[in-house]
TrEMBL record:
<feature type="domain" description="Bifunctional inhibitor/plant lipid transfer protein/seed storage helical">
    <location>
        <begin position="25"/>
        <end position="108"/>
    </location>
</feature>
<feature type="signal peptide">
    <location>
        <begin position="1"/>
        <end position="22"/>
    </location>
</feature>
<dbReference type="InterPro" id="IPR016140">
    <property type="entry name" value="Bifunc_inhib/LTP/seed_store"/>
</dbReference>
<keyword id="KW-0446">Lipid-binding</keyword>
<dbReference type="InterPro" id="IPR000528">
    <property type="entry name" value="Plant_nsLTP"/>
</dbReference>
<dbReference type="Pfam" id="PF00234">
    <property type="entry name" value="Tryp_alpha_amyl"/>
</dbReference>
<dbReference type="GO" id="GO:0008289">
    <property type="term" value="F:lipid binding"/>
</dbReference>
<dbReference type="InterPro" id="IPR036312">
    <property type="entry name" value="Bifun_inhib/LTP/seed_sf"/>
</dbReference>
<protein>
    <recommendedName>
        <fullName>Non-specific lipid-transfer protein</fullName>
    </recommendedName>
</protein>
<comment type="similarity">
    <text>Belongs to the plant LTP family.</text>
</comment>
<keyword id="KW-0813">Transport</keyword>
<keyword id="KW-0732">Signal</keyword>
<comment type="function">
    <text>Plant non-specific lipid-transfer proteins transfer phospholipids as well as galactolipids across membranes. May play a role in wax or cutin deposition in the cell walls of expanding epidermal cells and certain secretory tissues.</text>
</comment>
């Protein structure tokens, strides 16, 4: 394999991984859209929001996915100024058992 081919391959893999990540974050964002009110200012959780939480939880079938969702949640929470106490209580509010804490300080890399 020539150097150029290798470089092209590595580049293609990187671009592809970024694309997958972006899609997953988009999915997280879409599913949690009905939760935004609650996540920012508390109050009651809508059933649409809980449906989204359950959908995401079901989609996180592998450790890699969970890690990815965890990272998406953290970066989205930051960019939408979500309050951490609401984010962390969301699974409980929806009675969905999420396998990892939803928290700014949780290290997503420790999921396995
Ligand atoms: C998170 O965990 C990984 C793997 O255990 C570790 O390498 C990394 O330094 C940790 N990051 C933080 C911010 O603690």
């Amino acid at each position: 394999m020539s150097i150029v081919t290798k470089v092209v391959l590595v580049f293609a893999v990187c671009v592809c991984m970024v694309a997958i990540n972006a899609d997953d974050c988009q999915q997280v964002l879409t599913q949690l859209q009905p939760c935004m009110n609650y996540l920012k200012s508390g109050g009651s959780v809508s059933s649409d929001c809980c449906k989204g939480v359950a959908t995401l939880n079901k989609a996180a079938t592998t450790a890699a996915k969970k890690k990815q969702f965890c990272k998406c949640l953290q970066s989205e929470a930051k960019s939408y100024s979500v309050k951490s106490q609401y984010a962390s209580s969301l699974p409980q509010q929806c009675k969905v058992n999420v396998a990892y804490p939803i928290s700014y300080s949780f290290n997503c890399s420790s999921i396995h």
